[in-house]
């Protein structure tokens, strides 16, 4: 597949290189240059919107910053192209960093508003700062000079082509690197990313900065290509156009970005010529007819489903062949076409084209036999660290309050190194809250927590994770759109020490790190029995496998303490039996395990110590058998208003699921 892509890419490149010879008309060449420039911007914007999942309506502002910086440097300072472009990229990167700050606090529609405001402010500033920018009159820029020769439009085309190719490679390498995986993890689950040692703030800012750098490159190329820039060229419409191009082409795809850029640049031009517009409509009818026909034959649509769109298309065709003057209707038609495409192809053109392959892959992996967990060693165990009776973790008088409710009321907990420590109690008793306190997601209002001799209160989750505490979540928090292997690789991010230059140049040292991380991740998948599913998207896994994957991902941190929040919930009996074996093996690797579980047979059989919480207070602690017969514990399970979930059918009949059954 990689080779096919490479050959296809080279072919396209040869075609692109021959383009100036093919076009006699300089106007068309100019359109292609604009497509290339937009594509560079969209590559970067996709990092933010597609991978990190942050909406941006501020990229026109960044584009303007790049254009004006390059324009001003070349006109006012008279510096050459190869100084102006990097400077523009750097300045835009700084602005991107500024734009990141609101994104650390707000997301979704609010972030869209903030970024839009940012872009508007940039426009106003350019308008107002007459002394520097010439205000509304704009700035004249000339084509770059190389070795005393001013480039012609045709020669500049090759500069843009080179920029597109280099940006394509750079963005692809970034996205395949630990950076890209961190960005995508932020989208999947920020809280899980944090708990895997991926600092959410740091990587969000990085995503904005990298994205802005490409906007800066695109902007600077734009000023040289147009030879004239004015503030009204970077307005609201351009923001919408960029976002539209990205969605239209398909997020998370470089080819999609090029396609999207082509559509938003070419379509309005085609719409200005009636004859061209008519042939476009005919083409559209043919494509829709083919798609609908194929869909009906393969029973993917019912006739009723396609009736409305076909009717709408018919009305559109009648309208299209009845108008005599297209210039007035241009924007309306453009808008309608865009709406239709986005409505019917929510994943963009590339998403639509890729769909059959994704389905094929899913079918294939569903057909492969699911492997059992295997008895492979996770890592060399350090025997000396294993057998100590010292507490690895100590919490004293932890208080955690939500409004008036004390979810944890002076809880003291001591976890012995190398043990499996059960944490049980009725629903709402504060078990998960305790886990969130230990992993830094909540900061307790009082109390102390010490792990391995260091206080962890107030430390950010990513630091705590890298310090040796890994966890899973009660409601599974995987990076859904990433593959099983990538999910585990995210937690290996801390093993990478090479920086961005090594990634961009794909240096051997960095490649070794990638390979090492991949080998270790595959070993973990083998251990968990998930190796055959390595390329499957995490969200497509059956629920039980998702839970196992989450444990595998946590193991990638090579933790000293592993917290499992109801790992057996929703698992079938044979899966639970596997899980018990896995947990024991993890403990044998020297990892201390804290287990929150409702399956009492499991808790009683594998835990060395059990702590019982009720209404935020510790009511019992000790060996499982002792705790089990404690009257306060029985009372908590019987008398509490909290309702126990229906126990899963057990693999061993006669073994009680909840404490009280045994006592009754
Ligand atoms: P458990 O895991 O033992 O079932 P939790 O620790 O999830 O219980 O919850 C303990 C109590 O704290 C519950 O009453 C719950 O509603 C409350 N709680 C937990 N997290 C929050 C939160 N973020 N905001 C408000 N209340 C919360
Ligand atoms: Mg819970």
Automatic annotation (TrEMBL):
One Pfam match, given by its short name, reads BPD_transp_2
- InterPro entries assigned: AAA+_ATPase, ABC_AA/LPS_Transport, ABC_transp_permease, ABC_transporter-like_ATP-bd, BCA_ABC_TP_C, LivM-like, P-loop_NTPase
Q: Does the keyword Transmembrane helix apply?
A: yes
* Predominant location: membrane
The record's annotation in PANTHER family points to: AMINO ACID ABC TRANSPORTER ATP-BINDING PROTEIN (PTHR45772:SF7), CONSERVED COMPONENT OF ABC TRANSPORTER FOR NATURAL AMINO ACIDS-RELATED (PTHR45772)
Q: Where are the transmembrane segments?
A: 28-49, 56-75, 81-101, 108-126, 156-175, 205-222, 228-248, 255-271, 277-297, 306-324, 330-353
- GO biological processes: D-alanine transmembrane transport; L-alanine transport; L-isoleucine import across plasma membrane; L-valine import across plasma membrane
The alphabetical list of record keywords is:
ATP-binding, Cell membrane, Membrane, Nucleotide-binding, Transmembrane, Transmembrane helix, Transport
**Where do the record's region annotations for Disordered lie?**
642-664
Q: How does it sit in the membrane?
A: Multi-pass membrane protein
**Entries under SMART domains matching the protein:** AAA
Name this polypeptide is given: Amino acid/amide ABC transporter membrane protein 2, HAAT family /amino acid/amide ABC transporter ATP-binding protein 1, HAAT family
Keyword ATP-binding annotated: yes
Q: Provide the leader sequence positions.
A: none
A cellular component term from Gene Ontology for this protein is: plasma membrane
Output the superkingdom of the source species: Bacteria
Q: Where is the ABC transporter domain?
A: 393-640
Q: Where in the cell is the protein located? A: Cell inner membrane
GO terms for molecular function, please?
ATP binding; ATP hydrolysis activity; L-isoleucine transmembrane transporter activity; L-phenylalanine transmembrane transporter activity; L-valine transmembrane transporter activity
